[in-house]
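To close the section, here is one more complete example, presented without commentary so you can practise reading it yourself. The ligand is zinc ion.
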Amino acid sequence: MKKDPGNGGTNADGTMEPIAVYPPRLQQKILAQEAPGKAPVTLAIVIPSVTRPMQPFAVNVSVLDANGYPSLQCDDRVRIETPDDGTTEIAFSRGKPAVGCLHGIRCNHEGLLRLSATCGPLSACSNPTLCTSEDVPGIYWGDPHVHTLLSNCHPDRCRSLNFCFTAARYLSALDWVAAADHVSNGRCDFSKWKEQQTVANLYDDAPDFVTLPAYEASLKGGAGGDNNVYMSRFPDMFVDEYAGGDVRTLCRSLRDRLPKDEFFVAPHHTTRTGKHGEISDDIYPGPEAMPVLEIHSKWGTSEYRGNPSPLKKVHDGPSYARDLLQRGLKLGFVAGTDSHATMPSGGGEEPGHIDRLPGLTAVRCRALTRPSVFHALRQRQCYAASGERILLHGSIAGREFGDEWSFSERSTPPEIDVLIAARSNITRVDVVRNGRTIHTATPNAWHTRLAFEDTDDLRTVWTSSRHMKEFIYYYVRVSCDSGAQAWSSPVWMRG
Ligand SMILES: [Zn+2]
Ligand SMILES: [Zn+2]
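Output:
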């Protein structure tokens, strides 16, 4: 959850009043110069996905133009309905980006909640929050895949690193972001690399906002496709295996720069034509070096052939997430934008081939710091979403998503127990076991609880592979009527 530095103002009767906080002047200038928003078209409000009873939290408010840029033409107040049935307001003025925060909002009781807001003719509903006093980890939302001008890829659309980090924090209300600029094929050098680390470290501001060191390494056809490299700190220089290497040699070269627990790679749009994201057994670097896969970005979804949001051109594979999981590759799920308009979490005028819903990654950890986000991703303590901050809170046989356990520890049928909430109506919740949907619920509501016991004889359904011997994996897929989806990282049961 987002830390709230302000407690709000105190009224004469001792009750607390929320206070409006705007981005620092320099950040307002960056937003206004690089993405000057036109007339207001949408209102957006974002709240933390996990909150505590009576603990203050911040509500992020933005009034956006048709492209998702913060409007410079808004001269109005946004009225927000607070959890105690009151209202509060934040005012925006013409000439300044219509982005701000209301600090000091509180939920007074446990449960699921959304907030609604209006601004003139515009209205909005927030993402859901789970207000709980239970000792559960926070959910921190991030975009692990943003391109800036340093990528030299669609530079007519891209913006600066300053904009990337400013927009991620103040416009999109993300908890963390990774600028994952291209390095391959001569697109990076020492000076660009130094610029990247200097600016990323400048904007890293735990516990309020985290930047994750990252870059994108492309590999030629048959060598593992496009992979992002994530690191707990910047090494002196990136490594690139574009010409002549593959994803395994890339990880070997990274090992010369960083200890093995301080980096990992994540393949993405594995179904893209010509990229050969099938990751053959010969080049698979193992679950420690490759713990997660980007299942969705603005290119589309790479979950399974025939999914509702495919890439525009897909190759013959087998390279979907389903294909890789069936081979025993132990991959959790992340999602990002792959924005080439430098718009973390979505919006902007992208090149035409990148037109699907933006992806987001929810990381589950105790505190918002660079090491905690990095290690949670590396341990697959994360889930992927597209389009909305869908809340997914639960377990399989008592295990967190991303974990594994052995058949010998099992005494009762595995139970999938998940609490789900979204901004729009949830139309479907699927339980997937070894690539097949084994249970579907159709709640048609903004929140639901799924409790399902898998009573099948599991000895007849396990798969075996050279990477994992006998195994069964489960994950949960959520679909909403807005088109938004979420995918829990799988849980593995092993022989
Ligand atoms: Zn690119
Ligand atoms: Zn990319």
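Once you have examined the tokens, check your reading against these statements. The helical segments are 25-34, 161-171, 190-203, 247-257, 321-326, 370-378. Residues 147, 151, 153, 182, 340 surround zinc ion (ligand 1) (CB under 6 Å).
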